[in-house]
Amino acid sequence: MFIGSMNPCPCGNYGDHRLECRYSPNQITCYRNKLSGPLMDRLDLHVEVPAIKYEQLDGKEEGEPSAEIRSRVEAARSRQRGRYKNIAAATNIRLRSKYFKQYCSLSINLCGEKF
């Protein structure tokens, strides 16, 4: 898996409703073209993420307690152990390709057609 990020323009303000970008559309295109075509061809998903205020990231909001998260993780692992009890796999990552159809088959696609 490859994950990368970049600013939308050299100053980082393009698309931000609070700050003005100081670059022309041509300069922004030149900036974005610095990434090579072969590299861009390998990126399957492009997501634009808007700027957010620091206050949204400062950690003052109460998150979900670790004990609740741990409970969900343990339940998922228990389901996996039960699912794979008759084969040599304890987790999804250990599942051999010959078992994919049996344990990971998809019943319908987004168009509603059966596989």
Describe what you observe in this structure.
The chain is an all-alpha fold. It is built from 4 helices and no strands. The longest helix is centred in the middle third of the chain and has 18 residues, at 66-83. The protein is flat, with a radius of gyration of 22 Å. The protein starts with 24 loop residues before the first helix and ends in an 11-residue tail after the last helix. The mean pLDDT is 84.
List keywords for this structure.
115 residues, 4 helices, flat
**What's the rounded overall pLDDT mean?**
84
Q: What structural class do you assign from the helix and strand content? A: mainly alpha
Low-confidence stretches: none
Number of helices: 4
Strand content: under 5%
Could you state the order of secondary-structure elements as H and E? HHHH
User: How far is it from the N-terminal to the C-terminal residue, by CA?
Assistant: 27 Å
Count of β-strands: 0
Briefly, what is this?
The chain is mainly alpha-helical. It has helices at residues 25-32, 37-41, 66-83, 100-104.
Secondary-structure map:
Elements: H1 25-32, H2 37-41, H3 66-83, H4 100-104
